[in-house]
């Protein structure tokens, strides 16, 4: 039975059209790429019981937001372990297991949501689903490079573009499915018409002699409801937010598509090459493309592997560094200076454009690398990246001094270009690996290199949150020095000596301090991200050094016949 | 794990340190594979991973100490001979 999944069973027959591999690879990557749409589940997950708004026992945003990070970490680990297995059993077996894990992960996660067991959601989506992501990600890479030795970059770019586009497609599936399965809870009436009791912070109502928990929906909660409903009191536990059912449906859909895609995989027979194509002559002085092969384990003992690890890791860290704050920057900096242009709709379109440019960058840069070379492509990423990252703080400062649309256009263009290079970094790396280590074990080596992505998945958010926190603290300290202590006492009802507690309780914020700051004080909000941007530029500089010193692998690491 | 940073230099050092850790562990896995260490080759790097994680929870200085200790430990414990991987 398992024989149909084996490597020997999927060797392509004479005359097989190699372009048929591309849709199979794209299918798998489109499904697993939906992981980037995780944030769309968050609003529903935190209203699992309350449905219309969060109830007392509902999960908090803080408790569910880490599921995405767990999934990315397990992606890296599964890719590292599964890469070697891929070389042994072939892409169809790995693709099938990936379908089981990704689809199954949704099912287990769905059970966790239904039963209210958060650990099951972490296990299902984060751990099992994360393993499905890693296996699915690496499954087509080596196969595509072997089918397209003449256009390695373009071939892997097509597949990895799917990963970038998965979130866009998922956006049009997740929200409609939640709405289909959504069932509003029982409406008890307006706040005035219902006798509410408060016990231990919970809102309760007596129904037939029994105290039942309720949630109160105010005017501000209406926008967050999946189906329109009136303001007032709703009975907890009588409706369904539909997210568990959406998980089951999505799991089934992804499983079927990925299974079909896995069965579409074929590998070329030994020694196959495209008609009329000859491998380029190896010239050590000029060419970075080797005709030799390096084994997966041996690759880990070469300095080139670690150079590429740093290149990928730091490119992704820098990308996440701006991805994580781009929308906030747009709203905080440009929303206040150019409010007639940057509104909620503008910000939503901006987020959609981020996904689009991330996806376009994957195919564009990976295909371009076939012509300009892999090392030159990364040269562009890092030199241009450093310039763009360093220029963003200047743009933010200028727009706060002179609110001109020119700065908005520049910021928009600069961030979009950064996002194309973020995606391009992912898509070009398999071809770079194939150039350096040969095509034979590229799938497995790529799997191990993805630990760089998992690491960046931790570094990026950590850098953003830490640096913003430091910047906010510094900005508040600077503002305090300019504010009269008596005015501060009158405004916040406490002295400056209690600043730490006031900041921790969010009583004192930059906006509130600006209200009592002397006229002419410059709002420090636009400078909150400067340190993040400069740090990311430094990180890119390290990656640039790694790329600049890249040389072919020493012959002692080549496999001997 | 709770790590607080005072400035951007500390964040940068943390990123570099973690990268060195992950790369060291990968290198040890590769080294173990060419020395036929079997299950020991899987367990020893795993101890390194756990030690690194524990050291990080105690602060960056502990992690800076744990890394060379782990590395020296690996060089002391690994079999002396390695072999080339052939096709």
Give the topology, please.
The complex is a heterodimer of chains A (561) and B (87).
Chain A: H1 21-32, H2 42-45, H3 61-64, H4 66-89, H5 91-115, H6 118-138, H7 141-147, H8 152-181, E1 187-189, E2 197-199, E3 202-207, E4 210-217, E5 232-235, H9 243-263, H10 296-299, H11 303-337, H12 344-372, H13 374-401, H14 405-437, H15 442-449, H16 451-482, H17 485-492, H18 499-504, H19 510-516, H20 530-548
Antiparallel strand pairs in A: 1-5, 2-3, 3-4, 4-5
Helix pairs in contact in A: 1-8, 1-9, 4-5, 4-6, 4-15, 4-16, 5-6, 5-9, 6-15, 7-8, 7-15, 8-9, 8-12, 8-14, 11-12, 11-13, 11-14, 11-16, 11-20, 12-13, 12-14, 13-14, 13-20, 14-15
Chain B: H1 8-33, H2 39-57, H3 60-77
Helix pairs in contact in B: 1-2, 1-3, 2-3
Can you walk through the features of this model?
The complex is a heterodimer of chains A (561) and B (87). Chain A has 561 residues and is mainly alpha-helical. Chain A folds into four domains: 195 residues, Growth Hormone, Chain: A, CATH 1.20.1250.20; 49 residues, no CATH class; 188 residues, Growth Hormone, Chain: A; 56 residues, no CATH class. Chain B is mainly α and 87 residues long. Chain B has a domain of 57 residues. Helices cover 72% and strands 0% of the residues of chain B. In chain B, helix 1 packs antiparallel against helix 2. The mean pLDDT of chain B is 79. The chains are: A mainly alpha (561), B mainly alpha (87). The interface between A and B is medium-sized, with 34 and 26 residues.
């Amino acid at each position: 039975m398992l024989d149909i999944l084996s490597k020997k069973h999927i060797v392509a027959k004479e005359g097989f059209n190699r372009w048929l591999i591309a849709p199979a690879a794209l299918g798998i990557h489109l499904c697993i790429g939906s992981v980037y749409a995780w944030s769309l589940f968050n609003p529903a997950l935190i209203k699992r019981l309350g449905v219309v708004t969060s109830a007392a026992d509902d999960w908090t945003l803080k408790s569910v937001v880490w599921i995405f990070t767990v999934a990315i970490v397990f992606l890296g680990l599964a890719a590292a372990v599964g890469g070697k297995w891929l070389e042994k059993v072939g892409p169809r077996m790995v693709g099938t297991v990936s379908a089981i894990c990704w689809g199954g992960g949704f099912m287990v996660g769905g059970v966790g949501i239904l039963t209210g067991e958060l650990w099951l959601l972490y296990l299902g989506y984060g751990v099992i689903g994360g393993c499905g992501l890693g296996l699915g990600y690496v499954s087509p890479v080596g196969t595509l490079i072997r089918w397209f030795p003449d256009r390695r970059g373009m071939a892997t770019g097509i597949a990895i573009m799917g990963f970038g586009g998965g979130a866009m497609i998922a956006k049009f599936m997740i929200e409609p499915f939640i709405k289909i399965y959504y069932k509003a809870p029982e409406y008890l009436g307006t706040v005035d018409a219902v006798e509410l009791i408060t016990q231990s912070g919970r809102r309760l109502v007596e129904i037939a002699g029994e105290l039942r928990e309720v949630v109160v929906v105010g005017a501000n909660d209406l926008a967050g409801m999946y189906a329109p409903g009136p303001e007032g009191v709703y009975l907890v536990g009588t409706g369904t937010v539909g997210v568990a059912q959406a998980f089951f449906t999505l799991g089934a859909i992804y499983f079927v598509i990925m299974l079909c895609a896995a069965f579409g995989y074929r590998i070329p027979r030994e020694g196959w090459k495209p008609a009329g194509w000859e491998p380029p002559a190896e010239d050590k002085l000029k060419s970075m493309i080797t005709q030799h092969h390096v084994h997966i384990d041996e690759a880990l003992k070469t300095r080139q592997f670690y150079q590429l690890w740093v290149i990928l890791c730091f490119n992704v860290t820098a990308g996440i560094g701006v991805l994580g704050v781009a929308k906030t920057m747009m709203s905080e900096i440009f929303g206040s200076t150019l409010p007639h242009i940057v509104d909620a709709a503008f910000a939503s379109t901006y987020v959609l454009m981020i996904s689009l440019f991330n996806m376009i960058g994957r195919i564009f840069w990976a295909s371009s690398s076939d012509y300009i070379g892999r090392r030159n492509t990364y040269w562009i990423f890092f030199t241009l990246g450093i310039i763009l990252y360093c220029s963003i703080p200047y743009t933010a400062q200028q727009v706060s001094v002179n609110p001109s649309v020119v700065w908005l256009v520049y910021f928009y263009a600069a961030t979009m270009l950064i996002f194309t290079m973020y995606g391009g970094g992912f898509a070009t790396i398999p071809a770079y690996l194939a150039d350096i280590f040969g095509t034979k074990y590229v799938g497995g080596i790529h799997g191990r290199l993805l630990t760089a992505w998992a690491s960046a998945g931790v570094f990026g958010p950590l850098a953003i949150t830490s640096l913003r926190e430091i910047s906010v603290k510094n900005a508040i300290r600077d503002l305090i020095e300019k504010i009269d202590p008596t005015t501060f006492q009158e405004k916040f009802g406490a002295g400056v000596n209690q600043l730490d507690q006031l900041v921790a309780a969010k009583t004192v914020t930059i906006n509130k301090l600006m209200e009592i700051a002397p006229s002419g004080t410059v709002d420090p909000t636009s400078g909150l991200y400067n340190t993040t941007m400069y740090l990311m530029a430094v990180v890119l500089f390290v990656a640039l050094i790694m790329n600049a010193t890249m040389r072919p692998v020493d012959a002692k690491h080549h496999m001997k016949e | 794990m709770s790590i607080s940073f005072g400035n951007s230099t500390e964040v940068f050092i943390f990123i570099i340190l973690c990268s060195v850790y992950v790369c060291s562990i990968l290198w040890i896995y590769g080294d173990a594979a060419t020395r036929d260490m079997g299950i020991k080759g899987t367990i020893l790097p795993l101890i390194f991973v756990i030690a690194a994680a524990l050291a990080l929870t105690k602060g960056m200085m502990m992690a800076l100490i744990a890394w060379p200790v782990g590395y020296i430990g690996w060089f002391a414990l690994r079999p002396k001979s390695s072999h080339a991987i052939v096709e």
